[in-house]
Amino acid sequence: MPRLRLRMMAALLSTLTGALAGCGPNDDASSHGRRPPGAQVKIAVPADAPTISDAVALAHPGDLVLVSAGVYHESVKIDTARITLRGASRDKVVIDGRLQQPNGIVVTAPGVAVQNLTVKNNTQNGVLITGSAKAAAGLPGQSGGYDTGGEPVTFLKSFLVSYVTATRNGLYGIYAFSAQNGVIEHSYTSGGADSGIYVGQCKPCHTVVRNNIAELNAIGYEGTNASGDMYVVGNRLVGNRVGLTTNSDHQEKLLPQQGAVIAGNLIAANQQPATPAQADGGWGTGIGIDGGSDNHFLRNRITDNRNAGLVITATADLPATGNQIVDNTFTGNGLDIGWTFPTATKGRGNCLRGNDLHTTVPARLATTASCPLPAHSPSPAGRWAMPTAPAGIPFTEVAAPGPQPQFPHATTTGATAVPAAPVLPKPAGIPLPSVSLLAGNARVQTS
């Protein structure tokens, strides 16, 4: 007898037993039925449940939902804590939104792991992890924004996304919004019409984004109002329109952005024309800092970005202050570092030390803005001729990804226990990456 029917019968018998015996104040009235405390179950799709959503509805905390190869046309919502959702094959388990739903997977419960599958063709996000009820309902993003209005900030606590491929989604590939204590790792994103990986509205974030590939997106990685223990390390951000941004934005709460560590990333060739064009038209930039403060950029390899390797600017009312650019290698960029403040809002206390670079605007920044600097020191500014951004393509037409590495022993390993808080990297131990970082799994190569 299929396991799904066994579990449904067990739940029915449990309900009848409770009705006959009478319910005491400590009885478990869970809609999932009774079972021994701490017992864990593997629910197979489609063997035990016909759809992923059906399997998730059956799952208890600690269970593994293991999905067999196939194309699943559904939006999966996970609101039970500590479930592991895992594909048996990363490339062959595909959640395809067919451009008819906002999100492929929505996680609103803590301790959930999403692993080893592909999510594509959603009008908003591939995978959304959030403590915001409005975001979970698909309300942000309808016009390219993410303003949740007067909703109080509520954090989802602890999450893991690993070995996930998210491609051709209308806003973000992997989106952690109003979430803390999480890890996004070993994943691949492309065709994000806004960005491949996005972390927003968290303070402190206690979040690690590591060892991912983001290519052929409008922006590879974006951190908006993502502050405090926010680590972006060891990623390949190559062949987007913009490699990485860390910024402050009034559309989200918890202004301003501050206190991220961006270290050991390869950020290269971010002027790919066959990518979705974002609203502000950015193109050819490796790293952009817009109103972000007190961030540390350490030992990144920033190369062949046609406009500039790293740009610091300010929003109309939020300065960029105290950013430190230390021990990075710049080669082949149109301009290695450029600081520009076109509005009345300026920068303060931004500084450089130990970088391998060749050109800056203003000139001689390595000397005039050498770290450390007093926090109130005004940051000089200049202008340069920026290349014209080419027209983009629809996100639905971005090149399909190739096969990506599988989660080890996906079908034989039990559920993943997601820690309450991740172990944070030690910046001193993060090396400068090679030019071949994760190249074997990428479509876009560096020059």
TrEMBL record:
UniProt xrefs under InterPro entries: NosD_dom, PbH1, Pectin_lyas_fold, Pectin_lyase_fold/virulence, SCF-Subunits/Alg-Epimerases
SMART domains noted in UniProt: PbH1 (SM00710)
A Pfam family: NosD
Tagged with keyword Transferase: no
Top-level taxon of the source organism: Bacteria
PROSITE patterns (alphabetical): PROKAR_LIPOPROTEIN (PS51257)
Keywords: Repeat, Signal
Keyword Magnesium: no
The name this protein goes by in its record: Right-handed parallel beta-helix repeat-containing protein
Domain Periplasmic copper-binding protein NosD beta helix per the UniProt entry, residue ranges: 167-334
Gene3D superfamilies: Single-stranded right-handed beta-helix, Pectin lyase-like (2.160.20.10)
Taxonomic path: Bacteria, Bacillati, Actinomycetota, Actinomycetes, Kitasatosporales
Signal peptide: 1-21
